[in-house]
Amino acid sequence: MFRIVRVFTGRCGPCPCSFFMNLILLFSDDFTSADTVRLTGRRLTHVLEVLKPAAGDTLVVGREGGPFGQGLVREINGRALTLDVSWNVPPPPKLPVVLCVALMRPIVLKRVLLTAASLGVEEIILFHSRQVEKSFWQSTALRDDDIREQLVLGLEQAKDTVLPKVSFQKRFKPFVEDVLPGLMKDRAGIVADPSGEVVTRPEGAKTPLVLVIGPEGGFIPYEVEKFKAAGCRVVGLGPRILKVETAVVSLLAKLF
Amino acid sequence: MFRIVRVFTGRCGPCPCSFFMNLILLFSDDFTSADTVRLTGRRLTHVLEVLKPAAGDTLVVGREGGPFGQGLVREINGRALTLDVSWNVPPPPKLPVVLCVALMRPIVLKRVLLTAASLGVEEIILFHSRQVEKSFWQSTALRDDDIREQLVLGLEQAKDTVLPKVSFQKRFKPFVEDVLPGLMKDRAGIVADPSGEVVTRPEGAKTPLVLVIGPEGGFIPYEVEKFKAAGCRVVGLGPRILKVETAVVSLLAKLF
């Protein structure tokens, strides 16, 4: 009898943010044949340091955009981990939401990306607004690989395999006037602002939404008016001023 | 005409976590007379670096455990800030919840304390359970001053003045058998575990709760049974495995 190694029982010191890896996410580059993968780098380090499996043990794996399954350890050493993989569980459903967030400080951006991915957000749009510091758009945290890293960490945490789509809108007016109406053709628009009434009940888990959250300094009144003109409902979060990452989680929890 | 300095428009580089200070929280030690305070240290640095007020400007202040009001800048320089204060707004209501969280890694603990304080949690109990690393109880993040710092940052973020009470339960069984029943005399108990059904609707904002959240590795079945035996309802958060800080915000948002 071989043991099934529970992926979430260990803590990974060397990993970027000491996260818990609840599944090992596999990408097409990892496959050496239809049902064999070879892992190196961060995932190998995590497995060696935390899970310490032996040949014959089984790990939880997921295929990017596809199902979960088992990875039977064929060989493991300091250079590589070879797994024979098989699939049997579909990934959890995504939240039907396009999350539009004003660009934030790089450290906050990382947390928001990871958290939104872990919550199952389908699509993320980072946009510019008046109270966003222009320098944020120069951050290395916006590079494709850096964004992808946070999303992958979020999926590994939550046990999901489907990466959210991420895009940028560096100009406010074209975003609100040209992009938002397209998104709202088959979704209801909600913008968070202290001027709105508090969300008191879920909207029903099936309603696809566009959820717009402003920068830490808030929207200016002109911006709120533009969202209203585009057909968004304004909702508040009560008298407390929350951090962006807290507001994201709180609103998603209330709305779905 | 003097300007009112909006406290949340700036970012504070030197502050512990680049947070936004939406009010300046004042403590009894700060008062030099009934309506005059003198600030030094972190709050002075924040005001000098971010708000840069001149004598005659007004800042938003709050008195610990008391109301908000205005602080009229009488004098400011590199050594101290002197304000004439007056009060006129009560603090926002607290969430009627005792949040019991299994002790977590220090970096996560800091975020959970800050976030719980910002959300208005009334009381926080950090408890031990099987999957909590014993070394966590040695962390300097558990010192009174370190805990208080995170709580104050959370209140300053959220614009609240009432510090949550924080205590420790270092042994699981006495916590569940002796402490929890007392808390549940006038509160409903809820424990988060994947075995429970998903929370689908708010419980009504007025119901006082004891909300129990386990460690990142989860509760062991014995622990869940002990909570059930104490009268707690088990609720789940769906198929996704969330980080502790995300689970805290998500559950509080769904339940209140």
Which tags fit this structure?
Alpha/beta knot, Ribosomal Protein L25, Chain P, six-stranded parallel β-sheet, 256 residues, disordered N terminus
Query: Taking strands numbered 1, 2, ... along the chain, how are they ordered across the largest sheet of chain A?
Result: 1-4-5-6-3-2
Quick one: overall form of chain A?
A: elongated
Residue fraction in strands of chain A: 25-35%
Q: Can you tell me the CATH class of the largest domain in chain A?
A: Alpha Beta
Q: How far apart are the termini of chain A? A: 42 Å
Oligomer: homodimer
Classification by helices and strands of chain A: alpha/beta
Q: Count the beta strands of chain A.
A: 12
**Mean pLDDT over the residues of chain A:** 89
Classified in CATH, the superfamily of the largest domain in chain A is SPOUT methyltransferase, trefoil knot domain
CATH topology of the largest domain in chain A: Alpha/beta knot
